Amino acid sequence: MARNKIALIGAGMIGGTLAHLAASKEMGDVVLFDIAEGMPAGKALDLSQAGPVDGFDSNLKGTNDYADIAGADVIIVTAGVPRKPGMSRDDLLGINLKVMKAVGDGIKAHAPDAFVICITNPLDAMVWALREFSGLPHNKVVGMAGVLDSARFRHFLAEEFEVSVEDVTAFVLGGHGDTMVPVPAYSTVAGIPIPDLIKMGWTTQENIDAIVQRTRSGGGEIVGLLGNGSAYYAPATSAIMMAESYLKDKRRVLPAAAHLTGQYGVDDLYVGVPVIIGKDGVEKVIEIELSDEAQGNFNVSVDAVKELLEACKGLDSSL
Ligand code: TXD
Questions:
Q1: Both ends of the chain: CA-CA distance in Å?
Q2: Taking burial as the number of CB atoms within 10 A of a residue's CB, which of 110, 168, 176, 253 is the most buried?
Q3: Residue whose CA is closest, atom 6 of ligand 1?
């Protein structure tokens, strides 16, 4: 039986971590693509030399040629540039939009049957644009943010309750950014919703409000601490979980930026919602009933994503 093939477009901090995780879990053979010369081949060689020690047999290849992603089962996209001092949001949007065009063209030409997970920021706009440029079906292109955002929420909740992270579930909706919507009513410790835990005296509303706020600015907190670059271990781990759900047809229920066609009152937009990921990609968008407050916050988040999309359409007339 042929091994799965995982192509990583962008071999930077997240791309390299993805390659390490995919190889050490023996998810398949790994191709690291980047426009930087030498670097992807260097990372592939370094990781290959971890194989004999760790005992994994994945083949790893670094490349600057899209032809090498041919036949990929999963593609994870982190290509792009981060925002630098003096650069406006529109400058960043313009640059990464061009990157998505190049990546979309490469996928369309060489791996049109892949399941594509986009990580590049601004996430909800970039995944929408990547889908447009690649021409792949909407169920085969998804954005990673919700698994990470809810992992951050879970970590903070587990600390607050002094219980294992394994017993904490958390629910986050909306766009990836300051307007994301953590939903405490659907977040639990071993099935007990947070509002009940407040009633039980395990925590206070004020503490939960502070945790919600810390989750919303979770990415920024790490950017501030690192001083150079953004989070990469948890983002990579989160995307790998999505890839595994697809490759193993696990049908996991995960929050992801998925294409909405009327659900939650939203049409033709990628926004974070709970979905089922299985062998056909995004097999179902789960539409839950939201409280008026959560729906209101969700609408604010959707408006922020819409604004970004309008800016993208202004920058590229083919969209
Ligand atoms: O939750 C989420 N979605 C995120 C998103 C969480 C954390 C970080 N998030 C975003 O992921 C971040 O804002 C960036 O847009 C991406 C990738 O983050 P990473 O930390 O891996 O960035 P790097 O180290 O700068 O890597 C980007 C690589 C780098 O090696 C460039 O040479 C390459 O992208 N690059 C390209 N590769 C292929 N093709 C093109 N055109 C290209 N342009 C740059």
A1: 40
A2: 176
A3: 235
